[in-house]
Amino acid sequence: MCGIVGAYGWTHDETLSSMLDWIEHRGPDEEGSYLDRDAGLMMGARRLSIVDLEGGSQPKWNEDETVGVVFNGEIYNHGELRDRLSREGHQFESECDTEVLVHLWEEYGEEMVSRLEGMFAFSIWDREAETVFLARDRFGIKPLYFGTNDRGYVWGSELPALLIGGVDRTIDPAAVYNHFSLEYTPAPQTLLEDVWKVEPGQSVTITDDGVETRKYWDLLDLETGTRTTSMSAAADRLRTLLERSVEKRLMADVPVGAFLSGGLDSSAVTGIASQLKDDQLKTYSVSFTDDRLDESAEARLVADHFGTDHTEVPIDLSSMDLFGEMMQYLGEPTGHLQMLPMYALSERASQDVKVALAGEGADELFAGYPWYQHVPEHKRKVDFMPEFTHDVAGAVAQVAPVGNKHLRYFSGLKNNEEMLLNHVCGFTTFRPEPDEFLRTGESAATSGLRANVGEVTAEVADPSLEQHMSTYETGYTLPDYHLYKADHMSMAQSLELRVPFLSTEMVEFAHSLPAELKVNDDDVKRVLKTAVSDLLPDQILEREKMGMRPPVEDWFEEEHDSIETWFTREKLRQTPYVDANRATALRDAHRRGEESVGRTLWMILTYVAWYHSFIDEQNAVV
């Protein structure tokens, strides 16, 4: 596990060194770099040693040093690939997975990525072809940013490294609109006009002739809901896939632990891992003083059930002391409420282990969120009404003095596209819309958001709303929201987080299942619960989903330096596209108890703190 950086079209020793310094937390064990002035190429990596501790230094080269790679991630099938490549005559000097990549490039070129199973972001330099090849894993588990400046191209694991590399700091108003609609910025957008995310399942080829992008794997190409199978057969297959995936993700030459919330997903991963490991599994959870949000009792129940060595990390308002420190590791802000708990949890876990397993991905694949039940149910109740009534409700909502949120909700039940926009994309229906505190001049139509949603509803042949929701959330919300949070907060503490639910086999199998095996009026994640019913206590199988989220609604009623430092009228006014008067009014209304808008205030807080930390050149840390 590492962090990577690079540039093509120009070289500068100090810039490369500074870019690598920025991502030191991603790889505190070792630094490696390569610079070719004649070719105008430089790249480097910071290494967190996980596999082949002695032989995994980067960059890695082929036999004649014409092909080199810097790599972030883990290739779980590297042993099989190594054996195949050795039979073809390729020679290896180490046992690490990184070296497999250069020989795959020699053998298969850009088609190499289709043979990889794992989480990865890497850049390959082919000296003879004068070609840079960037690639990111199918599900966006590991991040990779790509940008341009007046000298050429620049890339890296974190956006601030590209700022050091000289990309322009102009903010994209369309991305700001999407960020506040979704609580994240959807790929390929970033908040900067000249920086993009390499998309999940995408490769980027750079030559003197320019840039070419290619989707080597696309979620929208999967057949959705077409498998004919019984619940018992599907559950048996899912259990086999999960056990196989967990076993592969225990591959390490360092200690491996697990994050355990007490929910179904992390409990299933913990249970299987504890059975597969020879030694006692270390597990970690957070606790909240607010009983409405605290899951620590359930986490302890699971830990006791499997005999893990369990540690709890308490989170309360005083944890906001970590906010400024945490923001230094967020190249893009996010409205994810789990960021701070994940940051603190990762800090504690990193004292004992270098790798932790987590349950990310199961909710998106197996319809685990409450809206997978509620929104389709509400749609069925109004199916008898003609479509124009939804249009009328939407028009009235814009001028209605009361009840406008409920009218907006009803309007959004018109069809799958509208339902995705209103009920999955950031839950905008019952919270302030971006226009209430922003001045971007953008809309869902101009920002690209409607196009993203429209592509999903057009390409997924299965007409069920549940499948459309699952595909959208797996393709956008999962990588740019949940996995972004998981990666950046864990790597901030030099901890590698692995996600067993996101194997290629698992994702393709999940999308092949009909919706009724995942969710009905009575339950969510039906097939997953059946698959692990003999593994977990009934209390865990039957409990409702909570999520590791702090009580930000309560926190914004209080005063704390980490809030008051950033949430000032002056800083709000200096932050592009924020309406300082309206943002201040929102917080005042929240503190008076007139509105509960903690999630919105958290998004504003992180956006303002991000802008003044990274973009405002008078105060930026890079």
- Percent of residues in β-strands: 15-25%
Q: How far apart lie the N and C ends? A: 24 Å
Q: Provide the residue-averaged pLDDT.
A: 93
Judging from the principal axes of the Cα atoms, what is the shape?
Answer: globular
List the quaternary state of the chains. single chain
GO biological process, one term: asparagine biosynthetic process
Organism: Haloterrigena salifodinae
GO molecular function, one term: ATP binding
Keywords: Amino-acid biosynthesis, Asparagine biosynthesis, ATP-binding, Glutamine amidotransferase, Ligase, Nucleotide-binding
Q: Can you describe this structure?
A:
- It is a single chain.
- This protein is of the alpha+beta class and 622 residues long.
- The chain is 41% helix and 15% strand.
- It has a six-stranded antiparallel beta sheet with strand order 2-3-1-9-8-10. A six-stranded antiparallel beta sheet has the order 4-5-6-7-11-12, with helices on one face. It has a five-stranded parallel beta sheet with strand order 15-14-13-16-17, with helices on both faces.
- It is globular and about 70 Å long.
Structure, briefly:
This protein is α+β, with helices and mostly antiparallel strands. Helices cover 41% and strands 15% of the residues.
Topology:
Blueprint lengths: L1 E7 L4 H10 L7 E7 L4 E7 L12 E2 L5 E9 L2 H10 L10 H11 L9 E9 L4 E6 L8 E5 L2 E5 L2 H6 L8 H10 L12 E3 L4 E6 L2 E6 L15 H18 L7 E4 L4 H13 L5 E7 L7 H11 L2 E7 L7 H5 L11 H11 L5 E3 L4 H4 L5 H11 L5 H11 L6 H8 L4 H9 L19 H4 L1 H11 L5 H27 L4 E3 L5 H9 L13 H6 L6 H5 L9 H4 L5 H4 L4 H6 L5 H12 L6 H18 L7
Helix pairs in contact: 2-3, 6-7, 6-19, 7-8, 10-18, 13-14, 15-17, 15-18
